[in-house]
Write a structure and sequence with these properties.
The complex is a heterodimer of chains A (470) and B (494). Chain A is mainly α and 470 residues long. Chain A contains 21 helices and 2 strands. The longest helix of chain B is centred in the first third of the chain and has 32 residues. The chains are: A mainly alpha (470), B mainly alpha (494). At the A-B interface, helix 15, helix 18, helix 19 and helix 21 of A face strand 1, helix 5, helix 6 and helix 7 of B.
């Protein structure tokens, strides 16, 4: 019984131990930031490595918590992302006064996400969601001297509270109409024809859409991303979105299976709107963080196309794409965060002629952008191709065609940045940036991931073997 | 021969280039790599002859088939027939010539040659793919290097042209993607040879054929989607122009034939009139638009629109001879335009102008360059003895076999465009090469060894096809017949 408990809960336990370890370090004698950062990065690597061992299927806590190989894999994708982000923020945190607190906040949100992904009960889901949101709002405020940062945190906490309220209302309605709160009983009691069931479902789904910043709940994204420190922006746009998307897809495929006809159409229309609006806003941004905020909205739209497929292929492509998205987006954020930490410049116009001074960083950013745009041989091409192929299985060729043409629009704004870096001239280009070893490692991991994840089919096959359809 | 070699060779060369230092090392590595590619392509031709001579009549030779993404039925399936080998030979010659022409590329030389080699890898991969996914994969690989090549090393309004080209070609591949998806969901296969054995319902074909054809057509400068061609060519550096016109526009023609027409034959018959109409417009419009141009690169770019119209026309006419002619025209046009652009680049690098009005009497100062310029021009207007004549003649013959009166009218109009071609070619060549010499050019030098070698390699192809067309016909014809057996030829007029 105890060993079962330890094995099933191992990823959560490791993260909890890490958090307490950080507290102990904080209580001990003063250490330099470098030592702490080195230690934390190594610990996070161990955390990531530990996630590969001993995946088992099982339930805990009166069926409130469930885990299986797919869930373990999803959690490990998040572990990987957190490790990469931590390495990338080295240059920023080196001089920061509250390093340990930052990591405590970050790991607490991670813990929340783990519980959310493993939830088998709406209450557990809500618990995990809140645990992952509130510390994150504090992390958004971590550029303590910047006013914009606290403004962003405030915006985030208010909008999260709003979405939580919607979610809670939805949960209480669901409980009211079905009398159940666990996922297993819920799917047996939900009815597609009852308006109240549908209404409860829509409230619930709005809470999800809020977190993944899909249209029409996308408005908070750009402001929060812009105000937050780059590391936190990367965390928000990759880890926190990925976690909610993982839950979203599995909840739709299991709990809300009876309502498939309702969510299929909803999802399809919203995904197209999300892609189009994300793209249109991304076209004219100058601040790189805002730019990536809108581009990530569009990316989420593509993921929703894959979710709408409702097949094993759809789920596999969603998880696969998120893995690719982790690599590509973090490669982009890695470069931006490094340059921002050293020079404080965050605008596209500052990046003009970057290639003359920082060729390596320029190439990495270019590869990342190509992957986001879906250009072969980067993994982004495979990811998008599989998402759209999965989405087209229902015969919605027109809508898929619109999505495909939107890739061309997205191509324009990614190329705009490439053009600025390679082709434009600049009297005062960003000076050559020295890359700390940890950041370099993180960037190389991302680039390797971008190249390898697509070309090696075993990764997709691996994910596919764990996935399930309706 | 393992066909993967054709993908690996440019890839390895490109990676080695990244580790080189200085222009001298980079260009030496690039040249050696591209010469090995050319040798491999020739060796492939020899092996292919032997295999066919031994009586192997299967439609594709040297096939390799590995499972790539099993859940999605995606395979890494490659193989060649006569048509692909012709395109591979074309690619290999243009790559060598392009690298020789950029021998003195000082600016960011490493990146330049890297991108050229990457582009060639995309082209080889495209021509040998027998799986729609790999084909699409390589098609898109070939787009991005063009954007960077034009945007970084180009001239004039290069950023605008680069962006326009990249976006239009990407839109083309998005359309191709929709077409592929339709094919995939009605056959549950990405394998070209497998799909060709299946029957896709006619209404499905009619729905998806336009996507695939227009998508590839954008690459092949199909009217009215040709607008990227003039800007792209004019702004590109010489080698990139040669690659664009010589290789990448052929990706489109090949795709129209191998994917759209071959896999959706009923729709190809159904839409033949639209294809022929657009092709005829492109031929005539391109020819007249060329007459108005004053910049040598624009002249060649617009004439490319006109010449690529013959490719589309040949495909649209759907007779064995016309398909044969379309492939011949692709090869011929590829070599001829590459030579033309090479000559223009050589002239431009010396005189620093491409305006016809400012040039004159170049034959006296640079006889070699002027000669190849004239040869390329004569080939372009279809002078017997050069490849252009053979190719266009075959297209016309094949088109005339189609008994429909309207199509014959189109053929006549297309034929008539040759007169217009003669006008602009002779005028441009006469003004540039002959005539009174501009005194400022008196001290200019003739072609260097690398430029001569580049021109000779391209000219060998042009003249060989022109003098002994049966050689290449024996290569292309059985494969074209194979395609037509699948597509179903129209009733041929006696």
């Amino acid at each position: 019984m105890v060993t079962d408990f330890l094995i099933l809960l191992k990823q959560e336990l490791v993260v909890t131990v890490l958090i307490f370890l950080l507290f102990i370090i904080k209580l001990g004698k003063d250490r330099t930031n470098e030592t702490i950062l080195n230690l934390v990065n190594v610990l996070l690597l161990l955390n990531f490595a530990a996630g590969f061992f001993g995946c088992k299927e099982g339930m805990l806590f009166n069926e409130m918590f469930r885990t299986n190989p797919l869930v373990a894999l999803e959690k490990n994708i998040l572990n990987l992302a957190v490790w990469i982000i931590s390495m990338q923020s080295y240059a920023w945190l080196r001089t920061h006064k509250h390093v340990i607190e930052f990591y405590v906040l970050l790991l607490s949100t991670l813990l929340g996400m783990f519980f959310m992904i493993s939830s088998n009960n709406l209450l557990m889901f809500y618990l995990g969601l809140e645990l992952s949101t509130i510390p994150l709002a504090a992390a958004v405020n971590f550029d303590l001297a910047k006013r914009q940062s606290s403004e962003a945190a405030f915006k985030m906490i208010i909008s999260s509270a709003f979405s939580s309220a919607l979610l809670l209302f939805g949960i209480s309605l669901v409980y009211g109409v079905t009398g159940a709160i666990g996922y297993t009983e819920l799917s047996a009691h939900l009815l597609a024809r009852d308006p109240l069931h549908i209404f409860a479902f829509i409230l619930l789904i709005s809470g999800f859409l809020f977190k993944i910043s899909a249209v029409p709940f996308h408005l908070w994204t750009a402001d929060v991303y812009e105000g937050a420190p780059v590391a936190v922006t990367a965390y928000l746009s990759v880890v926190s979105k990925a976690a909610v998307l993982f839950v979203f897809v599995s909840v739709l495929y299991t709990v809300f299976k009876p309502l498939q006809s309702a969510w299929y159409n909803l999802l399809f229309i919203l995904s197209l709107l999300t892609i189009i609006i994300g793209n249109l806003f991304a076209l004219r941004q100058n601040n790189l963080k805002r730019f990536l905020a809108f581009s990530s909205i569009a990316q989420v739209g593509f993921i929703m196309v894959g979710i709408s497929a409702g097949s094993q292929q759809g789920m596999a492509s969603v998880v696969y794409f998120i893995l690719i998205y982790v690599f590509s987006n973090l490669a982009a954020f890695g470069v931006i965060s490094l340059i921002s930490a050293v020079t404080g410049k965050e605008n596209i116009s500052d990046y003009k002629a970057l290639y003359t001074t920082n060729p390596l960083l320029t190439w990495i950013l270019t590869i990342a952008l190509f992957s986001l745009a879906g250009v072969p041989p980067t993994a982004g091409f495979f990811g998008k191709f599989f998402l759209l192929i999965a989405g087209a299985a229902k015969g919605n060729y027109w809508l898929i065609g619109i999505a495909a043409l939107n890739m061309v629009v997205s191509f324009y704004y990614y190329l705009r940045l490439v053009k600025a870096m390679f082709m434009d001239t600049n009297e005062d280009p960003i000076a050559a940036v020295t890359i700390p070893a940890w950041s370099k490692l993180a960037l190389y991991i991302c680039v390797t991931g971008i190249v390898v994840t697509g070309l090696l089919s075993c990764i997709y096959d691996h994910i596919f073997s764990f996935s399930f359809g309706l | 021969m393992n066909l993967s070699l054709l993908i690996l060779l440019p890839l390895v060369t490109a990676v080695v280039v990244l580790f080189c230092k200085g222009l001298k090392q980079v260009r030496a590595v690039a040249l050696i790599g591209s010469l090995i590619q050319l040798a491999a392509a020739c060796w492939l031709l020899v092996l292919y002859w032997n295999e066919r001579g031994a009586g192997n009549a299967s439609p594709m030779l040297f096939e390799l088939n590995y499972t790539w993404f099993k859940p999605l039925q995606i395979n890494y399936h490659i193989g060649v027939d006569g048509i692909s080998i012709a395109m591979i030979l074309l690619t290999a010659s243009v790559v060598v010539a392009g690298i020789l022409v950029s021998w003195t590329m000082e600016k960011l030389s490493k990146e330049f040659f890297f991108l050229l080699l990457l582009l060639s890898m995309g082209a080889y991969g495209f021509f040998i793919s027998l799986d729609l996914f790999t084909l699409f994969f390589f098609l898109e690989i070939a787009v991005i290097p063009k954007f960077l090549l034009i945007g970084i090393w180009g001239s004039g309004k290069k950023e605008y042209s680069a962006m326009k080209l990249a976006l239009m070609l990407m839109a083309g591949s998005a359309l191709v993607f929709v077409g592929l998806m339709g094919v995939y969901y009605n056959t549950h296969s990405f394998d070209i040879m497998q799909i060709s054995q299946m029957k896709i319902p006619v209404e499905v074909q009619n729905f998806f054929f336009p996507f695939a054809f227009v998508g590839f057509g954008i690459f092949a400068a199909l009217f009215p989607f040709h607008t990227w061609v003039p800007d792209g060519h004019a702004s590109a550096p010489t080698a990139a122009s040669m690659f664009l016109a010589g290789i990448s526009m052929k990706l489109g023609g090949y795709g129209c034939l191998r994917v759209a027409t071959f896999l959706m034959p009923d729709a190809a018959h159904h839409y033949a009139w639209v294809i022929i109409l657009l092709a005829t417009i492109a031929i005539i419009y391109g020819a007249f638009a060329t007459m108005m141009q004053t910049d040598l690169k624009y002249i060649n770019a617009y004439s490319s629109v006109s010449h690529c119209g013959f490719v589309i026309l040949g495909i649209g006419m759907l007779t064995e001879t016309s398909i044969n002619g379309a492939v011949l025209q692709m090869v011929s046009h590829g070599l001829m335009t590459a030579l033309f652009f090479a000559a223009i680049g050589m002239i431009y690098s010396r005189t620093h102008t491409r305006m016809v009005a400012q040039l004159g009497g170049l034959l006296k100062v640079m006889p070699f360059i002027s000669t190849i310029f004239v040869i390329a021009g004569l080939c372009s207007l279809g002078l017997p003895g050069f490849s252009g004549f053979v190719a266009e003649m075959t297209v016309f013959m094949g088109s005339w076999q189609n008994p429909d009166a309207w199509y014959r009218l189109a053929t006549i109009l297309a034929c008539a465009s040759i007169v217009v071609t003669a006008v602009y070619i002779l005028r441009a060549a006469g003004k540039t090469v002959m005539g009174p010499m501009n005194e400022t050019y008196a001290a200019l030098t003739d072609a260097t060894w690398n430029e001569k070698l580049a021109a000779v390699i391209l000219m060998i192809g042009i003249v060989a096809i022109g003098i002994a067309p049966f050689l290449i016909n024996r290569l292309i014809n059985p494969s074209a017949a194979n395609i037509m057996k699948q597509v179903g030829s129209v009733v041929i007029a006696k």
